Amino acid sequence: MKIKILWALLALVIVGLIAVPWITSYFYIFIFTEILILGLFAASFNLIFGYTGMLSFGHAAFFGIGSYAMALVLIHLEWPFVVGLLLSMGVSALLALIIGFFCVRLNEVYFAMLTLAFGMMVFAIAYQWRSVTNGSDGLAGFSLGSFGLGFDLTLANPAVYYHVVLAIVVIASAVLYLVCRSSFGMILRAIRQNPERVSFAGLNVRTYRLVAFVIAGSFAGLAGGLMAPFLRVASPELLHWSMSAEPILMAILGGTGYFLGPFVGSAVFVLLETWITSFTESWMLVLGIILALMVIFFRKGLLGTVLDWWMEIKK
Amino acid sequence: MTNPILTILNLTKRFGGNAAVSSINLDVMRKETMAIIGPNGAGKTTFYNMVSGRMQPSEGSITLDGKDITGLPPHKISKLGISRSFQINNIFPEMTVQENVEVVLSAYHGHSRKLFNIASRNTGIQQEAVELLKRLGVDSLKDRRAEVISYGDKRLLEIAMVLATRPKLVLLDEPTAGMTPEETRRTTKLIKSLADSGDYTFLITEHDMDVVFDLADRILVMHRGEKLFAGTPAEVKSHPEVRRAYLGEEEDEMTEETGA
Amino acid sequence: MSGIGSALLNSLDIGLLLFIIAVGLNIVFGVLNIINFAHGALYMLGAYLAFTLINIVGMPFWAALLLAPLGVAILAVLIDRFLLRHIYSRDIADSLLLTFALLLIINESVRMIWGSGIQVVQPPQLLAGSMDIMGSSIPTYSLFVIVMGLALLAGLWFLFNRTRIGRIMRAAALDRDMAEVLCINTRLVVTGVFAFGAWLAAVGGVIAAPMRALDPGMGDKIIIESFIVVVIGGLGSFPGALLGAIILGLIHGVGGRYFPEVNMLLPFLGMALVLLFKPNGIMGKGAAA
């Protein structure tokens, strides 16, 4: 019964999100677009952190490369949007396979350091490879052409783009959720709690970690592909470790124990950022303080704390 | 004349300069229950670690059913039919008791590769999990979070997880350690019925001599990493060296306990 | 001096400086089992404190070399007492997250206090200019860095192998519970080690200050370098940290001179190469998951 209530609430939220362009201003359309894209980014991160127990500080590498892939497709090939997204996912999946191969073999501490280092390596490449990435200036000046799949949509219209993002994020999240609820997902959760036990049950834990890493990377790439046209630029900042910090903070803010936690975290994060940057430039400082406080006192996150309480009462 | 299910030749493990286990030669017969006894530090757990793949032997070989498994990683050895429990509880604390078993079953049946089924609707695995828990007598706890159940029940859950992979050879590492006398009795009876069913071969390390003599077809006595003697319980009881090195200490302890 | 000669000297320079910084990271990991993501930020703080002491307060370089690291060490004690103590008993991930949060806080604080611009610290008169060695002209400060690096190397070796404090740290690193049983006040050791690591980072910062311009991004650059050093050399290994630092120094010194286009990438490639063949680092153990 309680679960049904939660699903009903979620349905309400989605209906509300659909209605956003008609009930708010352009400003909030932009805000919600950002929340959805970063929410997907954070949810993909949580697959490897909250579910599988791997703390990566380089997740932005996949997000960023997804953005660059989309930008390059739009600039050089002018293919439909959907194809660009598929390419973003493919390229980031490949990168995740390469980086993951080096990293999942190692324990948590090494994993954290290495993902940071490899992420920054990708950043360095993007920063220096002017001929392809235009260096620190980034790639800009691309326009959105057709959507593809026979849909005729004016993607340049923010409200239209918002709905496209909403649809894609909802579908992608549903797919990700299915993965989390599957037997595979159950094994990932088991790996987080006791990887040794899982290997003694007959499974090669490394392989499962790598698969999770690649899936997470590809969904981060998808989010990145959605981000490039939204920002109108693909720049190295999207690959920097400070960008990798965002899904970490969002997952912790919302709660790593529940699938929707990162989305809640994304909403809180974006709204906080918008508010705080309006009167100070030291947003990173506030971010750091919030992360510290959450980790020490509120480890389960906002949604996590609420849902845990909700599940406990009147059993 | 049955051939042994497990053949161990010259098995040795060295850490730095010290040999934790040296030159063990052993045959374990199909369907028998062999107990491994020895004081702490005798090398029992290191021995287990090598057989189950948790550690690489420094020397020697291990053959399971004719297949060389020396130095293979744990997941491969598990797939070949060896399953073990641990001295310190090795379960999934945040999952329910039933889910704990489901994870192992899922791995065993190959469901773990499915990315798009709904694990909670997998009735086949759920039923099998409940049956296993019933067999171990802990099915009433199936929906409890694993970390909150009693220590003794955790050990039983662990055994359920061990059996979930339908192993040929079961390694139990001090299954009754830390249990109350009642729990020990229950567990011993359970292991006996499992052993009698003829489905498994058991290797059990134990400190409790009552349990050992109740369950064992044969006993391996280890001392300082070496095999001191292997034989039937009667042979072990009467073996002079064993009495001197190990049972002698145990008997004193036992008389102290019963005397008090 | 010949091209390759000055490249090698440069490498030694950079390498030893990297060693000073990375070894602090390694020590903290060895004893506390956490990676302090804020280690680079503490290095930067050392440099900026030295800047303030030298350029604004007017102290001589030597006074700053003494006081700035002390200040950072005190800050580290406060961080440990008020923040880190909450999460020591928890999952490692929480420590990583918290030190990462500290990184953000310290980075931004430096930017707020000292501004985003570049600051410069002059080397002390004694060490300015260059010296004539074997017919070549070598910057005196480079020699100073090398001497300091070697002195710290010797001092640390002595500390760990010959003193009681060093033995205590090694004991605590091996087995925290056992150390407690032996009535070693592990709380004190933990705080002390963390502060010591911070002190080393800050010393590196003060020494580096006259060599490089100060900017709020210097902490980030150095933490990545430290990670690479520690991964190449092997986490938890003292000689490994030295080896890793020298290798990275060589990559920078030689690579920077002869392969400037891919200079930014070389350290990462070096790291990836080592990882392919020796996942534990060249001298490390137990990195496998």
Account of the protein in words:
Chain A is an all-alpha fold and 315 residues long. Helix content of chain A is 76%, strand content 1%. Chain A has helices at residues 2-23, 26-51, 60-77, 81-103, 108-128, 130-133, 158-181, 183-193, 195-200, 205-231, 241-254, 261-276, 283-297, 302-312; strands at 139-140, 233-234. In chain A, helix 2 (26-51) crosses helix 11 (241-254). Chain B has 260 residues and is of the alpha/beta class. Chain B has 2 domains: 1-81 and 170-260, Rossmann fold (3-Layer(aba) Sandwich), CATH 3.40.50; 93-166, no CATH class. Chain B has helices at 44-52, 74-80, 97-109, 123-136, 151-163, 181-196, 209-215, 233-238, 240-259; strands at residues 4-15, 18-29, 33-37, 59-64, 67-68, 82-84, 169-173, 201-205, 218-223, 226-231. In chain B, the strands form 2 sheets. Chain B has a 6-stranded mixed β-sheet, with helices on both faces. In chain B, strand 4 (59-64) and strand 5 form a beta hairpin. Chain B is globular and about 55 Å long. The model of chain B is unreliable at 255-260 (pLDDT under 50). Chain C is an all-alpha fold and 289 residues long. Chain C has one domain. Helix content of chain C is 71%, strand content 3%. In chain C, strands 1-2 form a two-stranded antiparallel sheet. Chain C is globular, with a radius of gyration of 19 Å. Chains in contact: A-B, A-C. Chain A binds chain C through residues 49, 53, 55, 57, 102, 104-114, 116-118, 120-121, 124-125, 127-128, 195, 205-206, 209, 241, 245, 248, 252, 282, 284-285, 287-289, 291-292, 295-296, 299, and chain C through 29, 33-35, 83, 86-87, 92-94, 96-98, 100-105, 107-109, 111-112, 220, 224, 227-228, 230-231, 235, 261-262, 264-265, 268, 271-272, 275-276, 279, 286-289.
